[in-house]
Sequence to fold (81 residues):
Amino acid sequence: MIDDDSPEWTEADFKQAKRLKDMPANFQRTIQRARGPQKSPVKVQTTIRFDSDVLEGLRATGRGWQTRVNDAMREWLRSHS
Fold:
């Protein structure tokens, strides 16, 4: 399956790639501090299988779709407990 958000690198991509240590120092600092510690409560990474049309539809809702799925699952648990 090809993921449009993260396509396979071609040989040309690898040839053009640069190491982070070869980039300007201010860019390195920006990248290295881009993500801090996760907020409490810490989420747990897992794997779940969706039908391809469901996953496509979720991704089509845009940035933050995983958070919206998490919120929907939490709401479902509240109403079914």
Remarks:
- Residues 11-35+44-79 form one domain.
- The longest helix spans residues 65-79.
- The chain has a mean pLDDT of 89.
